[in-house]
Amino acid sequence: MKMNKKDKKKEGEEIILKIARRLDKETLESLSEKIKKVFGGEEIKVEIDESIIGGFWAKSKNYLIDCTVKGALNKIKNKVYGNL
Amino acid sequence: MEIYEIFKRGIERLGLETEKEEIGQVVEVKDGVARISGLPNVENFEVVKFERTQIEGVILNLEEDSVGAIVLGDFSKITEGDIVKRTKKVLSVPIGENLIGRVIDPLGNPLDGKGKIRAEEFYPLERIGPSVIDREPVNFPLHTGIKLIDALIPIGRGQRELFLGDRVTDKSHLAITAILNQKQEPKRPICIYVAIGKKEAEIARTIEILEKSGAMDYTIVLAAPASSPISFWYLAPYAGCSQGEYFMKKGRDALVIYDDLTKHGYAWRQISLILRRPPGREAYPGDIFYSHSRLLERAAKLNKENGGGSLTAIPILEIQAGDITAYIPTNVISICDGQIYFDTSLYLKGQRPEVNIGLSVSRVGSAAQTKAMKKVAGTLKLELAQVLELEHFLEFIEEVDPETRKKLERGKRIKEILKQEKLSPLPFEKEAVIIYAGIEGFLDEIKIEDIQGFERNLSETIEIQKPEIFKAMRDSRDLDLTTKLELDKVLKDLVKKYAR
User: How many CB atoms lie within 10 A of CB B70?
Assistant: First the structure.
């Protein structure tokens, strides 16, 4: 299915935020604000993903911030053992 | 507490700081080529990493909404939606002395099971060739050890000489003979054999030949076998060229054999079609000429200010039904400084090497010959051409005058001395003496079937009785008057034994 320009724009602006467990309202709001500032987007879709263990993972169409425990462990694994 | 501190310091050193990374997502992947959306600032030829599988790719196509990348690994593991990250590194290969004697893939990974290779430097795969100002004319021979080539179609260091012929002809073996011959050369070049799309068994046989003859001491084998991803076929010649460039920049000589560029053309056609580039003649992309010209332009003879090194390129092309006017052959012929055409009909007649002299040429010519070879082979091409014309003319005529008969007989003998078995290179002084014997008419009295034996006997006799002849020729690269007189004496004595 071909997307129109409006859909494309919307998709570009949407940010997905993954966290390991539910956060209190204040923390989530302050985190969302910071992420919006960094990515320049407007909408944030929050997802709970326990597999990231801790921290957060935010992604827009063209950018990504991986600040998760899983990501850090993977980086250590890759640096120590290479791409096994 | 102490262990905790050690771990902490170790992890800090790994540099795990989180940053905003530029990413893309796989839209589709087929036959080793992935289309990725996103990555707005990625550069051409930049390496990207597929995050889930840690497989790398190289960007080849930049479009408005997406980019195209060739996958440097098992593309079947990549799925739609996979996240792709920039590495901000242009595709490079490890280079250096440590690679000599090794078998590697186009990314520099060892394939010979001899352990990791410690690179001295990393060179980008794509590079612009040296400018005209940095070059000097090709003036030093690259002896192939093949009489016919060294005498009639000489190759110089820094030259680009194309080998082309049908599938049955022995193009690869002749190129390998040239590598084997470098063992006996005084200023030995480093050889790089690039196998593109060849069967693994065939590559293994080539390596065995090189190892048995001791040629691996100065050779790097870069293999992109038929079973490897298509991206490897495409990258292999550029990687081989980078290996050679390292030695050229160090002021040394290098010889790169691309075996063969037909497969490289197929690979680039396949990648381009998947990238949806508009197909042109024979479905090749519009930049197929550029893909070969930018590769072969990197071969050069540098001037003294730039170290004086050289990079000689021998690309091989497989043609169909002897058609040298096909698209890729005409392209590469126009890029190179000459071509050697391997003729199927000569092969079937049993002539070895099956080189068609009329259709072969070296645009560097005698500038790439030693003085000795220039002296003995100066008139060889003309004489052979005359004989071939006469043979053609006299095909249906029985009686000829004695003068013409003599010319024809000498021509037959010269053709006989130019015959040579594959993988048995000859040092230049041995080549020169037998050609001298043929041109000067010493062989006129010898039966054609005895000529091969005479040639072997002549070399042995000089080596045992008059080694100073070969020594003088090797040292001076010339055939001076004293040596010539000595050689005449040896030839006369030996001819008496063989004369009818």
Answer: 26
Q: CA B152 to CA B379: how far, in whole Å?
A: 10
What average pLDDT does range B486-491 have in this prediction?
Answer: 94
Smallest CA-to-CA distance from B207 within B196, B225, B219 is with B219
| pLDDT tens figures, B134-187 | 999 999 999 999 999 999 999 999 999 999 999 999 999 999 999 999 998 888
The whole-angstrom distance between residue B48's C-alpha and the CA centroid of its chain comes to 31
Higher pLDDT, B349 or B454: B454
B45 and B55 in contact (C-beta within 8 Å)? no
Residues of B in contact with A79 (CB under 8 A): 14
| Residue B256 near residue B194, CB atoms below 8 Å | yes
pLDDT of A41 reads 73
- Does B40 contact A at CB distance below 8 Å? yes
Domain ranges of chain A: 11-81
3-class SS shares of chain B: helix, strand, coil, % to 5: 45, 20, 35
B18, B23, B54 ranked by CB distance to A83: nearest: B54
As given in the structure block, the two tokens for residue B469 are 């002849």
Tell me what pLDDT residue B87 has. 92
Known active-site residue B276: no
| Amino acid making up residue B374 | K
What's the rounded Cα separation, in Å, for the pair B428 and A4?
71
pLDDT tens string B16-41: 778 888 999 999 998 889 999 989 99
- Are the beta carbons of B20 and A38 separated by less than 8 Å? yes
- What number is the ipTM of this complex? 0.77
Average pLDDT, chain B: 93
Mean of pLDDT values over B215-222: 97
Q: How confident is the model at residue B1 (pLDDT cuts 50, 70, 90)?
A: low
**In chain A, residues 34-63 whose CB comes closer than 8 Å to chain B:** 38-39, 59, 61-63
pTM score, two decimals?
0.89
Return phi, psi of residue A28, to 5°. Answer: -60, -40
A vs B: CB pairs below 8 A: 40
pLDDT over 60 (residue B273): yes
| Dihedrals phi, psi of B403, to nearest 5 degrees | -60, -45
Catalytic annotation, pick one of B363, B410, B456, B474: B363
> How many angstroms separate the CA of residue B222 from the nearest CA in chain A?
23
Please list every residue in chain B whose beta carbon sits closer than 8 Å to the beta carbon of residue A72. 16
Q: What is the b/e burial string over B286-313, where b = at least 16 CB atoms within 10 angstroms of the residue's CB?
A: eebbebbbbbbbbbbbbeeebeebbbbb
Interface contact A76-B21, CB threshold 8 A: no
Q: Is B37 on the interface with A (CB under 8 A)?
A: yes
Q: Which residue has tokens 């170790």?
A: B10
Q: Which residues of B touch A83 (CB under 8 A)?
A: 54-55
What are the tens digits of pLDDT across the range B331-364?
999 999 999 999 999 999 888 899 998 899 999 8
